[in-house]
Specification:
The protein is of the alpha+beta class and 239 residues long. It contains 7 helices and 7 strands, in the order αββααβαααββαββ. Strands 1-2-6-7 form a 4-stranded antiparallel sheet, covered by helices on one side. A 3-stranded antiparallel sheet has the order 3-5-4, covered by helices on one side.
Length: 239
């Protein structure tokens, strides 16, 4: 009788390379995950690059204007400030009552009973002045110039005059925004009375600062402080 044979099943030995491949897979996927997570950090790092502080000063509109601005590109920031200073100087040439050749001085001399064509910026300021004249019931009035002259504020000497009641009454007939006709479409100004005169001293600098801020924004500047002898505009916040 033949001895009974036992059947044996052959086991397949898994190659070691399989476990190695698994470790390689984990390593690669972890690298991909880390790399992907770093992408937004890279983008974010660009946003938080340290901003350069640029300080400038210039004389315009009767005083010193200072700029403190923050931007990554110092050259671009200086170009923006150059344009801003140029705009302020242009507004000064247009609206100064102290400059005989300014456009406003020309208007004050020639706008009685005739329309004088002016720069769009003068029309804009007049429209704003008219609005605040109405809101304050005449307390804010750019046609105050005849009274400024009457009291001696425009004289070379520091001695003030004390006009009589009659002189004041006569002058007040020519004071008031209702004595000024503004044609926005034609960009013209016309005075009803010969003695009517305009002084933008209470509004021109503020208007100029608004235009300056728009210039800085155009160049991508989001943080700046502009100070013109106490008239201040703060754009954004410092870093």
């Amino acid at each position: 009788m033949e001895p009974r044979r036992t059947l044996r099943t052959r086991r397949t030995v898994q190659p070691i390379v399989h476990s190695t491949s698994r470790r390689e897979f984990l390593r690669v996927t972890s690298l991909v995950t880390v790399g992907a997570s770093l992408i937004p950090l890279k983008i974010f790092s660009k946003e938080i690059l340290p901003l350069k502080e640029i300080k400038r000063a210039a004389y315009t509109m009767g005083s010193i204007v200072t700029f403190t601005a923050y931007h990554e590109d110092e050259r671009l920031c200086n170009i923006a400030i150059d344009e801003a200073i140029k705009e302020m100087k242009t507004i000064d040439k247009l609206m100064s009552v102290f400059e005989a050749n300014s456009q406003l001085s020309f208007v004050n001399r020639h706008s009685y009973q005739q329309e004088v064509t002016v720069d769009f910026r003068i029309i804009e300021v007049l429209e704003h002045a008219k609005k605040y004249y109405q809101l304050t019931e005449g307390a804010f009035d750019v046609t105050i110039e005849p009274l400024m002259q009457l009291y001696g504020f425009r004289d070379d000497t520091s001695v003030l005059r004390f006009p009589t009641d009659k002189q004041i009454t006569d002058i007040l007939d020519s004071v008031g925004m209702n004595k000024v006709t503004i044609n926005q479409q034609l960009s013209t100004v016309n005075y009803e009375y010969e003695k009517t005169k305009i002084d933008f001293g209470g509004i021109a600098v503020g208007y100029a600062l608004d235009r300056v801020v728009n210039i800085l924004k155009k160049y991508g500047i989001k943080n700046a402080l502009i100070n013109h002898s106490g008239d201040i505009y703060a754009l954004g916040t410092p870093p």
